[in-house]
Amino acid sequence: MFNFSVLEQLIGFSQDAFQHLSPAMTQLIRSTSVELQKLKQSYQNNDAKAIEYFMHKLRGSYATLGATTLPELSRPMEQALHQSGQLPGAEAFAEYLECVEQTSAALELWLTQFEHHSDTTTPDVLQYIQYLENSDMQAYSLFQQQRSGWIAYLGAEDFVLMEQEIMTLNFVAATERLKRIMQHKEAGQ
Q1: How many CB atoms within 10 Å of residue 153?
Q2: Are 43 and 93 contacting, i.e. CB atoms less than 8 angstroms apart?
């Protein structure tokens, strides 16, 4: 549905970039319901040009941020509208509307999750390694709660790799990564 690494690359794990893009994403989420109402009205009026316009606008906005399913679903319908003025069937249109709503909800969830996890203090790395070594599921939630602190400690590149390991519950790889980084930091001091 969404490739959130696109968003993370846009933001670059920078608080400034997040503060710059966050209002635009919030506005997109808020305006989506209005756009959907206009789209539904255009569909009822058999206004192919307006339908194509709103579908293109929604697809482009969400695809730029990393949406994957919506562009795949939207593109063939937009082409049919553009080339022959052919409206999507009722079932396909309903599926499209549901996809837009789910995509918007996914972005909103990601956005609120990022905002709330702003504990920038450096995590207790040794204690965290113990959670990982014991395959304690608390390691998963702690990583999310201390997201900003981990970004600061690990740096953007290692954070992305470790986040993937945590999300896939590959605690062994995450433990090895943390131990290497910790040794490197201690050697550098």
Answers
A1: 21
A2: yes
Residue ranges covered by each domain of the chain: 4-117, 125-187
Query: Which two tokens mark 79?
Result: 């082409």
pLDDT tens profile 34-84? 999 999 999 999 999 999 999 999 999 999 888 999 999 999 999 999 999
SS3 182: helix
Does the pTM of the predicted model rise above 0.70? no
Cα–Cα distance measured from residue 106 to residue 128, given in angstroms and rounded to the nearest whole number = 29
7 strand-pairing partners: none
Show the tokens assigned to 153: 């400690």
Q: How far apart are CA 57 and CA 80, in angstroms?
A: 16
DSSP assignments along 6-70, one per residue? HHHHHHTT-HHHHHHHHHHHHHHHHHHHHHHHHHHHHHHTT-HHHHHHHHHHHHHHHHHTTB-HH
CATH number of 4-117: 1.20.120
pLDDT tens-digit readout, 85-119 = 999 999 999 999 999 999 998 888 777 765 544 45
Question: What is the dihedral angle through the alpha carbons of 45, 47, 50, 52, rounded to the nearest 10 degrees?
Answer: 120
CB-based burial label for 163 (10 Å; 0-12, 13-18, 19+) = buried
